[in-house]
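Q: Structure tokens for this one, please.
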Amino acid sequence: MNIPDGLKYTKDHEWIKIEGNKAIVGITDFAQSELGDIVYVDITTVGQELSEQDVFGTVEAVKTVSDLYMPVAGKVLEVNPILDGSPEKVNEDPYGEGWMVKVELKGAPENLLSAAEYKSLIGK
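A: Here is the predicted structure, written as tokens:
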């Protein structure tokens, strides 16, 4: 199970990479493995201001649809254009080409987990 140290995590299995006042968000390797083969990513929140824990989109796997939760308060700046034609990138490379959104942060992030805390949460 890949859980990079340089990222922060949520209890809902999103990861976030904070770079100044912007961040990149995706779902964890654990989340994509639990979902199975991802066939569609639906994110229509570009330009919207969202609060922490707001749903910013959904991910559809062969057997289920799962909400995506915003790990921080902020404005959705961009959706990963690769996912439109290649949603499987989330399975193949969840921390790289499978990222989901870029966000402009509003305030300091709270309630994020370190890699060690996330590993403990998922029992790894």
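A few notes: The longest helix spans residues 115-122. Residues 13-119 form a domain with the OB fold (Dihydrolipoamide Acetyltransferase, E2P) fold (CATH 2.40.50.100).
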